[in-house]
Amino acid sequence: MSEQLTYEQALEKLDEKLKLLEDGDLSLEDALKAVDDARVYLKVCTERLEAARKKIEIRPEPTE
Amino acid sequence: MLKPEEAQRPYTVTELANEIRRELRPLTAMLVKGEVTGMKQGAGGHYNFSIRDGVSRLDAVLFADDARRVTMLPEDGQVFVFRGRVDFFGKTGRLSFITDQVEFDDVGKLRARLEELKRRLEVEGAFAPGRKRRLPFLPQVVALITSPTGAVIHDLQETIWERYPNMGVVVYPVQVQGAAAPMSVSRALRRCNDEALAQVIVVARGGGSFEELYAFNTEIVARAILGSRLPVVTALGHTSDRTVADMVADVEARTPTEAGSRVVPKKADLVALLRERGRRLDREGNQRVARELERLQTKRARLVQILPAMVRVRVDRLAHAAANLARLSPVQQVTRRQEALRERARRLAAAGAARMTRARNALTSRRAQDRLERALVERFSTEQRRLDHLRQQLVAFSPEAVLARGYSITIDAETGRVVRSAAETAVDRKLRIRLATGRLGARVEQVEP
Predict the structure, then answer these.
(1) pLDDT at site B322
(2) Helices B267-328 and B330-397 sit at what angle, rounded to 10 degrees?
(3) Please, is B424 exposed, middle or buried when counting C-beta atoms within 10 Å of its C-beta (0-12, 13-18, 19+)?
(4) What is the DSSP string of B342-401?
(5) Which residues does chain A have within 8 Å of residue B171's beta carbon, measured at their own beta carbons?
(6) Which chain A residue lies closest to B295 (C-alpha atoms)?
(7) Does B290 touch chain A (CB under 8 A)?
(8) Mean per-residue pLDDT, B342-370
(9) How far is A45 from chain B (nearest CA, A)?
(10) Rounded distance, CA B318 to CA B326, Å?
(11) B141 touches chain A (CB under 8 A)
(12) Do the interacting molecules here have an ipTM over 0.85?
């Protein structure tokens, strides 16, 4: 499920889970599930941050 | 100046031509205004044309290098102000105006044309905020469309890598001014979209005058930006008016630094943000578990509290039942009756003993009684004597004594009353007469009152 998420989407999901947890209405089971899910999203976010590769490429105009 | 008398030998043509060029040298950085005619492009990329007014005509050339820098290519019939120098070409024997800059003679007219373009785009909705594409929050590669040399590309790269050290950058080098600039920029925009190496495009230039920025006010560049699938950020410097390119771009930045910070987030901020989320997540997770543990503890404590009480109640009830059972059991009943008998025996013994004691006490007091009786007997005798005496006196005064002296007492036999007067009786009534010795029964025969 998290494979296709962008950094922004994963962060949004992470914040949703955090809000649910912080509202404190979850049962213990749901809360633990939410914590697990949130950890996955946190990992996705971190991975996305490191996904870019520093490089510079010059694409000159092709000569006709 | 060449003087005839010094001409000891004739000049060669080349010598004279050089002499002429030397003499023309002061005619440099000249501005000349005129109408363009006979414009044609030569093989080496240079342009030949003539500049004329109503009277005179001047050959002119625009070399390829300069052609790339000029704001726009002059076309026949248009009036421009040309900057350049005058030179003499020995090979052709012609004098030429070497143009290095072309400026609009009538900026007002050009601005009017620009306003007209803006109006058209406005009507199309090209400037509408709703049309603008959203910049990706975190691109992996940023495309830079700019001049490959100079401060702009350097500043852009610096800013991007300073903010995001592992950001990818792809550069599309273009001419940012000169006649070829509009085509160059629009081609690069299309290639960016076709190649899709990046997720966002920055079109940058280090500012400039209205003329220098002319390419970014052309419809061709505006259309290329509008047609871009990838979001476009302009950074065309901060010294001039907004260009049409700025107006149709998705984000308009003033400087390369600003553009860099708009397209790339600060990685340190994101890392900090994620760290904060991680901390909140840990805290929430731990707190939730801790809260649950606490609840369990409370329940356990309550259970521990309640359990002995429950047991106690049951123990009490059992004890009570056992007591009842015991009371009703035959063995206990016999025992209890034995106990009651024993109690009575005890009481009997106690009563007997008390009685004995009392009797003993009575016996003891009887001796005192004897003394009392003796005293009483004496007292009786004395009193007896007194009584006899009194009786003698009493007898002396009694009716018997009176009767003894001859008197009698007449009593009505029926009423028992003493008859004191003859009138108290009647003839034939029975009387009794008491005498000193004996009594008489009589009947009244006569009454004499």
Answers:
(1) 85
(2) 50
(3) middle
(4) HHHHHHHHHHHHHHHHHHHHHHHHHHHHHHHHHHHHHHHHHHHHHHHHHHHHHHHHSHHH
(5) 56-59
(6) A28
(7) no
(8) 85
(9) 8
(10) 12
(11) yes
(12) yes
